[in-house]
């Protein structure tokens, strides 16, 4: 961190905390997240150029609500470190500095119109749309602060004290639904805080290579799990750049992959990325373990555990060649994997937010990367992408020379089609799902829409419905289609296809995929839904 200007984000449990970090990085400034119970000394050790206090699910009046670190107000007053409070963070500042916070008479969730004060230091527009998520509100700003924005319902939406370098926003500038939100953050960071933008993926590449070399040493060997997705491919290429032939890649065909995925990705790995890869056909093993398993969390844990057992076997194979076991395992874990797998549930306050934090947030779902690994795993983990978002990984991949057409592939979950098949998993149903998905994705490509969409997929539903085909009654499967737009995967909107497109896709699926007679399209956003169904 000493290499870069740093913004510390104190995480009070908001589902958007990692998104704040991403927005700061988009400005070219390194951001670092600390939990709500971090001490003042821990914060000071980061030498922050600014501090952002996140939102969260608590009420400032809850008995177990997270608070500002002891001594924070005095430290800020003495050092004049710029501080921005967002949602719960604004309420914490208001209360700590002599203002008043109380239960809102009208809770605000989703898009709201906000009216800003002309000439505010934060540069707020006179009218703009903002994303709200709160049940408490500031009723009186602290002494020395100006009220510089109100929502259309009359609640306080922003306060500032430029002399003290303290600012508060009740709305979420980090969410894309907030008009001009990134401009507000940029003004705070570059102008009001005066931070130098000196962080980039080129820096990350150079630093991670040094970190990997230092961790692995000069003799240890590394085994890498290649899933066929962007994340693991970039992670493998990065580690290969750092340690060369001491990397041993394994691609496991678990029977849960997309249409012809094995042949496609093995060609890429060997001919384009020049990675040393061993392919393991483990379809029977995985499908045998997953037979009769419908619970999505159980699916993830079975898949994660069996992956590690296979890597253990591959490590023994490599050890016979080397004379010793590989000591490390590479995974392409990303920030969203971590945020949505955060452990302990937090308090139920009026903040109206879930996920994202550690102690003060609620777990949404586990990911096989971070939630399904056995405790007795023999490898030490290398996760060079753990602090990055998907778009940052793609940029890092460009720096590494990974083919652009591969980097632009839609995200694919680690557990594969297991979490796109609701209920029991069978090979027959997987083949049906693969055929449906291939038609959907190919139609998207042919329509020139692939790069407008963040992620598209087909989902196999555990129901049959009555249909009519060839003048006869059928009782066949239902499949769902889903396509979303997003910049980071943290929030997402459903993609509004033209009706003719959906009609064509539905017709092809029902005519070409035996056993499917009904197609539905998912128009849920995230939140309240997640992108994947399980």
Q: Might you state the CATH topology name of the largest domain? A: Rossmann fold
Question: Based on DSSP secondary structure assignment, what is the total number of beta strands?
Answer: 18
Amino-to-carboxy terminus distance:
36 Å
Low-confidence stretches: 342-358, 360-372
- State the helical fraction: 25-40%
Query: How would a crystallographer describe the biggest sheet?
Result: 9 strands, mixed
Q: In total, how many domains does the architecture comprise? A: 3
Rg measurement, Å: 25 Å
Would you tell me the overall average pLDDT?
Answer: 88
CATH superfamily of the largest domain: HUPs
CATH architecture descriptor of the largest domain: 3-Layer(aba) Sandwich
Strand fraction equals 15-25%
Explain this structure to me?
About 35% of the residues lie in helices and about 25% in strands. The chain has helices spanning about 15-25, 40-45, 70-80, 90-95, 180-190, 200-215, 230-245, 260-270, 285-290, 295-320, 335-340, 370, 390-400, 405, 425-445, 500-510; strands at about 5-10, 30-35, 50-55, 85, 100-115, 130-140, 145-150, 155-160, 165-170, 220-225, 245-255, 275-280, 330, 380, 455-470, 470-485, 495, 515-520. Helix 6 (about 200-215) packs across helix 13 and helix 9 runs antiparallel to helix 10 (about 295-320). A hairpin with a 4-residue loop joins strand 7 and strand 8. The protein starts with 5 loop residues before the first strand and ends in a 13-residue tail after the last strand. It is globular and about 70 Å long.
């Amino acid at each position: 961190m000493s290499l870069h200007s740093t913004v510390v984000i104190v995480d009070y449990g908001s589902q958007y905390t990692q998104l704040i970090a991403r927005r700061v990085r988009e400005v070219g400034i390194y951001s670092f997240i600390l939990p709500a119970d971090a001490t003042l000394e821990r914060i000071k050790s980061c030498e922050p150029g600014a501090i952002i206090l996140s939102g969260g699910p608590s009420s400032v009046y809850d008995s177990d609500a997270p608070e500002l670190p002891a001594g924070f107000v005095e430290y800020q007053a003495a050092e004049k470190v710029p501080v921005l409070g967002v949602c719960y963070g604004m309420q914490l500042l208001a209360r700590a500095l002599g203002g008043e916070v109380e239960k809102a008479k009208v809770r605000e969730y989703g898009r709201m119109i906000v009216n800003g004060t002309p000439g505010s230091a934060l540069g707020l527009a006179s009218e703009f749309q903002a994303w709200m998520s709160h049940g408490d509100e500031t009723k009186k700003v602290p002494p020395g602060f100006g009220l510089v924005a109100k929502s259309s319902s009359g609640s306080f939406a922003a306060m500032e004290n430029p002399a003290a370098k303290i600012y508060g926003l009740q709305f979420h500038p980090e969410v894309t639904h907030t008009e001009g939100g990134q401009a507000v953050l940029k003004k705070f960071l570059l102008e009001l805080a005066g931070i130098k933008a000196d962080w980039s993926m080129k820096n990350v590449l150079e630093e991670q290579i040094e970190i990997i070399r230092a961790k692995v040493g000069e003799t240890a060997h590394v085994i890498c799990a290649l899933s066929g997705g962007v994340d693991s491919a970039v992670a493998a290429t990065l580690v290969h750049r750092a340690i060369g032939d001491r990397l041993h890649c394994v691609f496991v065909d678990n029977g849960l992959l997309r249409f012809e995925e094995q042949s496609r990705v093995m060609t890429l790995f060997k001919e384009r990325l020049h990675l040393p890869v061993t392919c393991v056909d483990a379809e029977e093993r995985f499908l045998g373990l997953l037979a009769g398993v419908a619970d999505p969390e159980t699916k993830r844990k079975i898949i994660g555990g069996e992956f590690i057992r296979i890597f253990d076997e591959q490590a023994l194979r490599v050890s016979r060649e080397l004379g010793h076991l590989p000591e490390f395992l590479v995974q392409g874990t990303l920030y969203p994997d971590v945020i949505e797998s955060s452990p302990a549930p937090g308090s139920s306050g009026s903040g109206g937010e879930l996920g994202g934090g550690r102690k003060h947030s609620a777990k949404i779902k586990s990911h096989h990367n971070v939630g399904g690994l056995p405790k007795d795993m023999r490898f030490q983990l290398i996760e060079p992408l753990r602090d990055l978002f998907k778009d940052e990984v793609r940029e890092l991949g460009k720096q590494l020379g990974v083919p652009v057409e591969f980097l632009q592939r839609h995200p694919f979950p680690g557990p594969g089609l297991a979490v796109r098949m609701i209920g029991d998993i069978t090979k027959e149903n997987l083949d049906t799902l693969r055929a449906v998905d291939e038609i959907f994705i190919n139609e998207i490509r042919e329509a020139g829409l692939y790069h407008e969409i963040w992620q598209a997929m087909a989902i196999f539903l555990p129901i049959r419905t009555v249909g009519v085909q060839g003048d006869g009654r059928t009782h066949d499967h239902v499949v769902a289609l889903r396509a979303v737009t997003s910049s980071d995967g943290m929030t997402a909107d459903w993609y509004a296809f033209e009706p003719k497109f959906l009609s064509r896709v539905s017709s092809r699926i029902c005519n070409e995929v035996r056993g499917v007679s009904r197609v539905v399209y998912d128009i849920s956003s995230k939140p309240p839904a997640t992108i994947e169904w399980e």
